[in-house]
Structure formats: structure tokens, C-alpha cells
Model the fold of this input.
Amino acid sequence: MRTKIIVTNESAMQRKYTDKWSSIVLLLNCLIEHDLKRGIATQVIYLDHPLEMNGRQVTDCKNEKQNKDAVDFICQDKNPAYLILLGAWDIIPFQNLIDPMKISGVMPSDLPYACNAPYSKNSNNFTDAERIVSRLPDVVGSKEKGFDVLVRTLNAILHSTRKPKTHFALPWAVCTSKRKFSMEKSLRDMYGISNVSSLCHVAPPEGPSWKLGYYDKSVHFNILHGGKNRNTLYGESPEERPVYPVAVNSSDIDGNLSTETIVLTMSCFGSQLYAPKRGQTLPFANMYFYSNASAMVGCLEQTYSIPDECGGGRTLGDRLLSEFFINLNNRSVGEAFLLARQTMKNNSFLTRPHNLRMFATFTLYGDASLIPMADDSFDETTLPDSIKIAVKSDRDSFIISSAIPHDTMGSRFQEIKEAITAYLSEHYENAEIIDIICNTISLESDSDQEDTLYTAICRIDNAEHLFTFIEKEDKLLLEQQYAANRKETPVFNHQTTRGTNRNENQ
Done:
């Protein structure tokens, strides 16, 4: 059974929602029951609870390092298939990374939560996204509006239904005249058709008064101009001295969406979360989820990009959004987004500062486990948990683990071994270390989920000699230490699945 963990800060939520917090808890309990029918074991963990966090709790909800460390602890301890951050940045903060373009000082990001790398402000440390992470945002600094958005968001998840790919065939796509070529290229990739000019609306002359039928489309895709703390997106006229008329207002979204709308926004600040002023309508991200969107991918900051660096006249953001959409069929929105991130990394698009900035500030809102697009024959309950490797190492122990559902344990154990071997091959060049660690793979039952979950685990106790070997690449030292301790006090606590370890075969 796949596992999903929803993390939030209970004390911060209680301060924000007071008497309304119990209603949110009730909806979370309903979501746990709902997910169980989907074949997902969901758990809510409060980052500020000392017992749940085993002493690694968050004591200051604004402290970025505490929150990053807490999430890392949960991922290493629980290794969930999906991780959901519940709340806006006043509940669980964005990680403020140093801007590689040195324009804004720091830039907000959820990317570090998706990476195994420890806390840092260096964006170069977070190019290897390995976790499926999303955020369910409420409204910054607002009890009433935040409660309404969160309740509608959770209710939409509870009532979501999968739809065939054809349901998402006609998007509402809006762009500036300068970016029309880029949008058309993305649409061709997303839908596999050549003639997409009729799908692309240019602002101006179009907008801001759109026919209601446009809002009702199941995919909203825009490449427009945005501004910080603004609930308006702007077009751009094609003149030498362009004007920037209003193209879309967030108030126009209210109540006009079809269910399960997927939102792709390449606009500056398109996914920004901020506290709306009195009389100001909600930010786009909040308004979309207030109106029953299922997923949103967009940028938290201003985007600086050079078209055609990432193919077909497109920027990294364009590519990321189209890759996300292409990946969606029969996949969760979280997996689709992770694959899109990994594609950007694998194509070496992150070597330039403006691409790295864009990569770090794009985020996913919505329930990462949701599968909005699927074939008629698709059965979500048969999905196995994805192979996810958790690593914990220090001088006392070196542990690599991966969860295996009980009912698929026999068929997936070899797959787990291959995944662990692949991980080791990526991180250690020497075949000796890979062979020794792989010989320790064993199965352990999860006492909290008895008869439902096993863990494939490589455990090497007293790992100081192992690390000495890694650091010095000294095979002889390793063999001498191993032979000296093998009979009486083994350096390596082998629980082998192959009957004998490598040294005993020699």
C-alpha cells in the first residue's frame, strides 16, 4: 500500500483558526478514510509535536532550518510515497534560497523539501529532486478566507474523480504576442497535434473580458506578466514601446471553473502566496483552489529567461510545464511534477543562473497523490508503492531502506535490490563497497503496520571502518578489518539474503 504523509504545524494552525481548527481536523480524518479506499495509507504528522518528531520538533514555525530538518527526519524515518505540506508559508515556510542571479537577494522555494540534501541556502545544492512533494495552501494571515479556501480544497479532493485524457483536450491558453511561438510549441508537445493556433489566445487584443466558456476549460495555461502581491495578470502589446493591459483578474476565476481544473502558469509571481489587503480579492493560487482546481504548477517569483535555451523557442519554465502535463496520464500530479523536474536536471538546463532560479521557484500546489487523468481501465488500487530509497548514515551505522507492501513483497524484493544497487552504483564507484552493502539486505516487518508493510533494509553496524574504506578507497584495509572482526565481533552485521557473504566465498 502506498503511503502519504500530510505535515503541518498544529500550534500555528490552532492560533490561526482557533475554534475552526477542529473542522479542518475532521476533514483530514475524512481524507484518511477516503485515501484508504484508493489504496493509500495516509497519516497526519504535526511538526511541532515532540513525541511524533522524536525530539526533532519545530519550536518556531517561521524557522526554515527547523522545518527542513523536520521534513528530512520524517522522510528518512517513514519514506512516504507522497509528502503534503498543509498550509501557506505562515504555517510551513518556504525555504529562502540565495538568488543565483543576485537580483532579489533570496527567493522562496519548496524545492529543498523534495531533496535529500540537508538544509542550505545554496540553490545549487537542490538540483536533485527525489521526493514527491506538494503543498495545500491556505491564505496567508487570514482566518476566515484561509478557512474557506482550505475547506473547499479538502472537499474537492474528497470528491475528485479521474477523467480520460480527452477531457483535458481543449485548454484555455493565454499569452503575450512575444510568447505566442513558445506557447504554440508547448501546446503541440502537450497534445500531439500540429495546428494549435486556434487554441492560443493573445492578450491584447483579447481579454480581460472572457467568455464564461473559457474559464470552464479543464486546463488553464498562461504565459503573461504578473506583479508582486497582485491579483492581476497582464498582456503585452507588440509595439516597440509596449503597453501592458490587464489580461486576467483573479476575481474572474471565482465560481467559473469546471471541477478538477489543472493550472499551468508561466507568469511572474503566478503562484505567489501573500496576505490580501482589505477589499482585495484572493491571490490566483488561493482563488483557483477556492474554485475547485485540482493542481497548479507555477512560479513564486519573477521569471528571468532566454527563449530557445531549452528547445523550440522555449524557456525552462515552458518546458517544465509541458513535461508536467505530458507525464500526467495514469500518474499522480506529484509524480508528474517530480519527473518533469528530473527531466530538466538530466538535460543540463540548470547550468545557467536564470534557469536555476526558475527551477527553484516553480512549485506544485494540490494533493500530490491525486490522479486526475487516467485511462478507463486504470485501477489505482493496484498501484505498487514506487521504489524510494532512504539513506541514513553516521559513524555508528549505515542504513539504506525501502518500504515493500506485504502483498507484493515476493514479487518486488528483487526490484528493491536492483534499486538499492543502482543507488550505490551512482554514489560509489568501487564495486567492493556495493557488493558488501548489498549482501546485508534483509526484510523487517513494520511493527506499526503489521502484516501490511515490510522494509527491505541494508544495515551495517559500527560503520566507522566502512567510512574509512570509502574515504581512503583502501580495499586491503577493509578486508583486514573485516577478517579480524568476523568471527568474534563482526564489523558488519550481515543479515544476508544469499546465504553467504563475499569474504566467506573466497
Remarks:
- Confidence is low (pLDDT under 50) at residues 406-411, 446-453, 473-506.
